[in-house]
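Example S7 (structure tokens).
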């Protein structure tokens, strides 16, 4: 029996942040990074809190690829301040850090058997359009060895997601590209997941269309507020889709590749995506037989996007080429080699990366069964000649 959960309330469109004026926040802890403070993005929120005479603290130590130690540092502040509300402001790293703090706080309270202190009200304000973290129960942390670990706990669902495109208008083109391709990967993996359903398919399909229709516009002109708003909504829609339908090996492999070679998550996803579609669809199977379930769903997306699709095979090939063309226009490399990774370093770590990908929680949702050798083959194909 399948379930479909939409946990956070979502407030969206330009100026949506003003909804904070009407919420009794109590003591508020803002979780963010130094960039958000330096460029006055957090000020859009603290100005509202100041006018409401709301007591608040700012934890601005968030860094890319948040570590467990970072979460523990935030937890210590949280225990000392005892906030009524947590507001995460930033990209996936800030929201994931806040999620970890909420999770650890809940575990500490349970361990101490303290029932008088409630979990804080959790608000997520994304400043990039890619992770969908504001509406998911997933988070990713990096351990002491630089390995990325994915977690999925219901306690990490935000209570409120505020999607205000004004918060994305200054995102640089490279980040816009990487996060946009992350949205596309979320949506495509959710669409073909072995746990997809009608609800997730409709959201995933809508997100895919928006990425193909608006990502290049936002990449070329960051001030295009319509494109920014459409991508922000697409990221959220894809997030709802994959938190219900799960992801797949594209994310498992991206976690391993990004963790070992310090490649941004979205960029790693984008490079791998065409090769994962090839594998899942069976387009290069030696016996010529397609993997029917995946191939038909990929072909459906190709047809929906207006790509050539006179047959299932042509549809799959069109989608693969469509993704590659989009990557090229976004200046995203078409191979792992083009990321600047030396072949000897890649070969030295491919076995370990494949093992990590097999153990990753995202692999459970992949529609085609994989083993370590299959993962290695995909990595090798993606490396390029």
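Recovered sequence:
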């Amino acid at each position: 029996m399948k379930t479909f959960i939409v946990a956070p309330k979502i407030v969206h469109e330009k100026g949506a942040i003003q909804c904070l004026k009407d919420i009794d926040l109590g003591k508020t802890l803002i979780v963010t990074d130094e960039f958000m403070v330096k460029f006055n993005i957090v000020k859009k929120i603290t100005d509202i809190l100041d006018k409401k005479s709301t007591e608040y603290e700012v934890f601005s130590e968030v860094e890319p690829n948040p570590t467990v130690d970072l979460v523990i540092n935030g937890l210590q502040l949280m225990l000392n301040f005892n906030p009524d509300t947590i507001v995460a402001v930033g990209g996936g790293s800030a929201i994931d850090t806040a999620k970890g703090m909420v999770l650890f706080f809940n575990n500490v309270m349970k361990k101490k058997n303290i029932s008088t202190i409630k979990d804080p009200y959790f608000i997520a304000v994304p400043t990039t359009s890619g992770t969908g973290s504001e509406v998911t129960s997933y988070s990713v942390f990096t351990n002491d060895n630089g390995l990325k670990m994915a977690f999925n706990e219901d306690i990490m669902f935000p209570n409120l997601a505020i999607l205000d495109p004004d918060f994305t208008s200054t995102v640089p083109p490279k980040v816009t590209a990487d996060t946009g391709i992350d949205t596309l990967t979320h949506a495509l993996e959710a669409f073909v997941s072995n746990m997809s359903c009608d609800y997730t398919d409709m959201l995933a399909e809508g997100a895919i269309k928006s990425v193909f229709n608006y990502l290049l516009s936002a990449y070329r002109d960051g001030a295009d507020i319509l494109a920014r708003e459409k991508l922000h909504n697409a990221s959220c829609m894809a997030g709802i889709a994959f938190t219900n339908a799960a992801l797949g090996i594209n994310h498992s492999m991206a976690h391993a590749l990004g963790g070992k070679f310090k490649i941004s998550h979205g960029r790693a996803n984008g490079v791998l995506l065409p090769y994962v579609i090839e594998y899942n669809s069976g387009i290069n199977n030696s016996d010529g037989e397609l993997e029917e379930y995946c191939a038909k769903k990929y072909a459906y997306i190709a047809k929906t996007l207006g790509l050539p699709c006179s047959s299932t095979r042509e549809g799959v090939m069109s989608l693969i080429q469509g993704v590659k063309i989009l990557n090229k226009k976004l200046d995203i490399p078409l191979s792992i080699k083009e990321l600047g990774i030396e072949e000897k370093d890649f070969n030295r770590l491919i076995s370990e990366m494949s093992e990590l990908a097999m153990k990753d929680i995202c692999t459970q949702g992949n529609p085609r069964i994989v083993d370590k050798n299959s993962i290695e083959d995909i990595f090798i194909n993606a490396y390029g000649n």
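Notes on this example. The beta strands are 9-12, 28-31, 56-59, 85-90, 121-126, 138-142, 148-152, 160-163.
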